[in-house]
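Subject: for your reference before the review

Hello V.,

The reviewers asked for a structural picture of the protein, and I figured it would be easier to keep everything in one thread rather than splitting it across files. Below is the amino acid sequence we used in the manuscript, unchanged from the supplementary table.
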Amino acid sequence: MWLLQTLAGGVLLGLAPATSVLSQQLRTGLLDDVQVGYYRDSWRRWRQEFWRSQQRYLIPLLTPVVLGFYLWMLRGQAVAVSIAILLAVYLCWLLHLPAVAARADEAGPDREHGPTRLWLLALRAFAATPVPFVLAGLVGAAAAVLGYLYLPGALVFAVPSVPALAASMAARQVPERLLTPAD
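And here is what came back from the structure prediction:
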């Protein structure tokens, strides 16, 4: 579904809503709340989330492109190591952003969480419970490397879901007090 929804949005614009729907689906599946018409409902969610997810995730999804460009331009120089480490940490944070957002939306469905608040919430969640987030980041990195090196089909089908599942499981460890803002 993730691949089809990404393609339906023209890849660049389809990536954010497809990732958002994938995180919501995994969150629902982890809570054992799967119902009849679940996948048909994902297309309704995709249409409903299309513009909101662009606000939430498009800038964070485009940032690795910029960092990758700088890494490519500075290859072979000492500063490239710093940019590579920054990119790895950023990708770990980015992996968890939709999962934490799905958990925050569930904790406060009556509140509209702005993009900046969600970005900071993901950082705070990472700082509060680093072990599950680091483990999920390592699972995501291992899935990407294995999918790329050994089975290109896995890169398309399994790589989006395995890291998203690990991130959703890590987001379950976020303390409830972080999800509900103090008024």
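For the response letter, the relevant points are probably these. Residues 100 and 171 are 5 Å apart (CA to CA). Residues 2-179 form one domain.

Happy to draft the paragraph if you're swamped.

O.
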